[in-house]
Design brief:
alpha/beta; seven-stranded mixed sheet; 9 strands; binds D-malate; signal
């Protein structure tokens, strides 16, 4: 006759052993970055990798894939959702195509300081946005790293006001809100994937683009753009992400290590990003760019109708909470 107690103990032992083996699994995650190994994005990804390796005693490591080697940003987000790409850091530009709430980060002049954005992202609103991306796109946000405040560059003229954008062919990210914003400002705006921007500027297909200072430096836009205009029109997060299926397949212990490594890396990345923003403006000037600091009020005024037009789609409460985050 079967000894029920013995069978149960064997089953518990087998499950425990399997669980322990799972917790001990070794794994290398491929991480996609739109920028290079010296970029502000890379500072965060490297710190995450270093901490993950330390916390897991060498079992969990990362392999960064720089400069869109795994695909353009939208493809990378889709790839993580489908379980084809392990991890990535990207701007939020393409995410409004997955979840309307993410269009918030395309609305101009909503966040006024990095601290306001951090307070918003590190609290209930950031958590709610992350939960929506996970349920609607199958992608888990591990931490809100950043690209930083975005500024215009162009090859035509300095921008002292929005009227100086007249006739300029301006590249936006793949976001309807961004196209509307730059159209309202007076440019001829069209969307284009990040992977094509440098060549488009080099060949004169586009005159203008916008990105944070560390990005402008990392991809050497100073070789193909003459004017840097500090328009500071949006704060651009760069969440560090993992495919939700992959995350959920990890043991609870390893999930906790991944989250802990990300929590340590986020402030390190933000600090590097802010420092690089300060230091690299002078460097870009030294490399030949003409830096202009326009009065931002006329830019703000021109884009108010865009905020009104998109507010309900994004979620009026979310927009108002973000606007209030600096006060
Ligand atoms: C873009 O302009 O498409 C992005 O800001 C690129 C990036 O994430 O670095």
């Amino acid at each position: 006759m079967l000894d029920f107690t013995k069978v149960m103990s064997a089953a518990v032992l087998a499950a425990t052993t399997a669980g322990a083996a799972m917790a001990q699994e070794s794994r290398t995650f491929e991480v996609s970055l739109p920028l290079g190994p010296e970029s502000h994005q890379a500072v965060g990804v490297h710190k995450f990798g270093e901490e993950l390796e330390r916390l897991s005693e060498g079992r969990l490591t990362i392999r960064p894939q720089y400069d869109n080697a795994l695909g353009a940003e939208r493809e990378v987000v889709e790839g993580m959702g489908f379980g084809l790409i392990d991890m990535g850091i990207t701007s939020t530009g393409p995410m409004g195509g997955f979840v309307n709430d993410f269009l918030l980060f395309d609305l101009p002049y909503i966040f006024t300081t990095p601290e306001a954005a951090y307070g918003f992202l590190d609290g209930e609103h950031g958590d709610a946005l992350a939960a929506k991306l996970e349920s609607e796109a199958g992608v888990k946000i591990l931490g809100w790293m950043e690209n930083g405040f975005r500024h215009n560059t162009n090859n035509v003229r300095p921008l002292n006001g929005p009227e100086d954008l007249a006739g300029i062919r301006h590249r936006t990210q793949e976001s309807r809100v961004q196209v509307d914003t730059w159209t309202a400002l007076g440019a001829n705006a069209s969307p284009m994937a990040w992977t094509e921007v440098f060549t488009a500027l080099q060949q004169g297909v586009m005159d203008s683009q916008e990105n944070p200072v560390p990005t402008i430096y990392d991809v050497k836009f100073y070789d193909v753009q003459r004017y840097l205009n500090l328009t500071k029109h949006v704060y651009s997060p760069a969440p560090l992400m993992m495919g939700a299926q992959l995350f959920n397949s990890l043991s609870p212990e390893d999930q906790a290590l991944v989250m802990e490594a990300a929590a340590i890396a986020v402030p390190v990345q933000r600090e590097a990003s802010q420092r690089m923003e300060q230091e690299l403006i002078d460097e870009l000037e030294r490399l030949g760019m003409t830096v202009t600091r326009p009065d931002l009020e006329p830019f703000r005024e021109r884009v108010q109708p865009v905020i009104e037009q998109w507010k309900d789609t994004v979620g009026a409460e979310l927009v108002e909470a973000a606007q209030a985050s600096g006060s």
